[in-house]
Write a structure and sequence with these properties.
By secondary structure, the protein is an alpha+beta fold. Helix content is 33%, strand content 17%. It has one domain (1-83). It has helices at residues 37-54, 70-76, 78-81; strands spanning 12-19, 22-28. The N and C termini lie far apart (52 Å).
């Protein structure tokens, strides 16, 4: 496991902005060895992930619904509606 932290620099959580359907946050930690950045980042993300899971906090991922009007469906044909017959194999 990668190591982070320092007696001089404590970890910090800062709000960095607003995004579509989200408030964004950043966890800032001190690293003595910058070459360990990626493994440390992964460890940190996993720690947050499991802490959220253990606290029964779910992350809602964005969903996209597409609604087509009748003209668009007609242009796409029966396959778009799942009505195309499949021949037996």
């Amino acid at each position: 496991m990668a190591r982070w932290g320092s007696n001089l620099e404590k970890p910090r959580v800062v709000m960095t902005g607003f995004a579509d359907n989200a408030v964004t946050w950043e966890v800032r930690v001190w690293m003595n060895d910058p070459w360990e950045y990626r493994p440390a980042e992964s460890d940190l993300y996993q720690s947050v992930w499991w802490a959220l899971k253990e606290s029964k906090i779910a992350i809602a991922f964005p969903q996209l619904d597409i609604h087509l009007d009748s003209a668009a469906l007609a242009a796409l044909g029966p396959r778009a509606l799942g009505l195309e017959r499949q021949s037996p194999k």
